[in-house]
């Protein structure tokens, strides 16, 4: 499916190799960056699977994982052994202070209160970075995207007339951000070249984010902040940030008089390019570079107790009406394959150790048990 991740892919002369050819004596130029914080074991597994997949696809480019330190009663178990040793198998681990901005987060659970910690990606000592959320599945080497001018991200919001047919690197019109933003699941950013300037920029941004008042809160606070703060955003096509959701969903709305609620079938509110990625799982497998399990409606770890083929069959059946092209089943089954790759590489690879093998096996067993328990008593949608 797509580019094979079973080994290192040759770097494109116009992408990763160009980063290396201009490398200075004191700092590398390009890096992949991600953020991990909190305590949930599934996010540790996401981080490990992502780092290992990037290593397989583009092993020459550094991978930096920002890991949050303890903060106001929140522990940092991922910085403790044996978890941190596992992370170091596939990442350069960099401890960071969390950015706490609860007033900017409009979600009821405040699940985005620390999302501005992503700003610390601009502190890393690299000229060009690609930032990835942990809940993504990379299927093809993202290294060509280092050549896209920064800042860049997939546009999210009402479609603007000038965005139709946009290619990677095309400027996003400023007026498109009156109601829209960029999806921060995959971003192309340029940190400042000098350390002092990097620290100064991030300190200013962190201070601004911390002062966002509750009356300006939203569900995607860092995304709207970034497009206001950084100028000249470029577009990244949807194949680099393909959200994993059904094509059709059930929409619930109140009646005009507010006395009851009605349900209706609606198309997913995604750009036309998302629908044009393919009409079948086979076509999607050829076109999609990164799957993004955004939101809270579908997490791939829910199916960890199944084999990839079992999960695909179950999801294809359950979503046959809402997702006839099989995007959901394809994405989840391939994420499960990425976990199998991780187990193979860590437990039987060249640098395998008994400690790492035991720690990873225990982690996968825990998440698998939780997935199985979560489904206990549940029935598959008819």
From TrEMBL:
Residues 1-20 are annotated as: Disordered. This is Hexosyltransferase. The lineage of its organism: Eukaryota, Sar, Alveolata, Dinophyceae, Peridiniales. It comes from Zooxanthella nutricula. It comes from the Eukaryota. Residues 7-19 have a biased composition (Low complexity).
